[in-house]
Amino acid sequence: MMNIPIQSISRLLPQTQCRECGYEGCLPYARALSAGEAPVNLCAPGGETVMKDIADLLGKPYLAPAKTQIKAVALIDEAVCIGCTACIRACPVDAIMGASKLMHTVISDECTGCGLCVTPCPVDCIDMVPVSQPFLPSARRFSTSAEPRFAAAEHAQSRFERHTARKQRDDAERKALLAQREAAVKAKQAAQAQTQTAAPSAAFNPMDLIAKAMAKAQSQQDKLVSSDNREDFKARQIEEAKERAELRRAQRDAKYGNEAEKKPPPSNFCAATKPSRKRPKKPADFQNNKPFRPYQAV
Fold first, then answer.
1. Which is more confidently placed, 274 or 240?
2. Dihedral sign, Cα of residue 284, residue 286, residue 287, residue 290
3. Which residues contact 225 (CB under 8 A, 6 or more apart)?
4. Which of 105, 265, 282, 293 lies in the 20 to 30 Å Cα band around 250?
5. Which of 47-51, 124-128, 249-253 has the lowest mean pLDDT?
6. Is residue 133 within 8 Å of 89, Cβ to Cβ?
């Protein structure tokens, strides 16, 4: 078997990192091809063209493509997007913009059509829209090749390498922050241990603890048996009882009158001064149930 450089095989692949071949990306598939561990017909976006180029390079016979992938770019339904950032983490070329709990959108010129963002979406708001471009992505600013196929592949590979470098940088920063926090915690624990070693506490004696508990219980019992302010408590109860008695007496007098108002009238009280309750005497004719007739002149 010929010894073909891995980079020569990887250059023939579209660099979409779609993983349709069963490997983690285009470079792992190129390594497997170089080692003779993979067939030449697994690249779905490359189709028959890439299969023939790889077969010619490796000196292997042509095979029908295992699967084909139409050219399409991702489109996010922005009205349904919940901002979970799952698609951003899945995109291998950073072609999706957005932030947590905010709307996401696809940079269509940078989309390679890999479709890796569709499956992680929890609300199924991403569709793959077919396009007429023969090679994706549409952007070419990171490429030096004049041929459209290789220009698109070079641009996609450059975007993937930048994405990988960014993830490695973020992971390194996160690990450094965690290491710094861990070191601070260990330093604090060491300082506490040193302080405890420098000033050791007295040996624990269970009898002291029992004696303290018994003294506390005895003190509480003494307070229940003989209160410190017992005399003051009695005096306060007496005053409250007096106030309640005065209140009841005032309510009774307001309703029924006081003792002065209940005394009988004096003996020299004249009965004539009382108003007469006798009814006036009726005329004789009215008493005999006869109608009253005035006197008439004869």
1. 240
2. positive
3. none
4. 265
5. 249-253
6. no
Report d(CA 239, CA 251) in Å as an integer. Answer: 19
**Gap between the Cα atoms of 238 and 284, Å rounded:** 74
Q: Judge whether 65 and 117 are in contact, CB under 8 Å.
A: no
Q: Specify the residue for token string 């698109």.
A: 152
Residues in the chain: 298
Contact in structure between 63 and 39 (CB atoms under 8 Å): yes
What is the Cα–Cα distance from 25 to 19, expressed in whole angstroms? 5
C-alpha distances out from residue 91 to 43, 74, 190, Å: 19, 10, 44
Unique residue bearing structure tokens 């641009």: 155
Closest to 114 in 3D by CA, of 251, 233, 14 = 14
Q: Residue 74 pairs with which residues in a beta bridge?
A: 128
C-alpha–C-alpha distance, residues 114 and 90, integer Å = 10
State the residue for tokens 């008493």: 287
Q: How far apart are CA 162 and CA 165, in angstroms?
A: 5
Sequence letter at residue 207: M
Round to whole Å and give the CA distance between 114 and 44.
10
Residue 158 confidence class, pLDDT cut points 50, 70, 90:
very high
Cα 251 to Cα 207, 257, 258, distances in angstroms? 63, 10, 10
135 close to 14: Cβ distance less than 8 angstroms: yes
3-state DSSP assignment of residue 271: helix
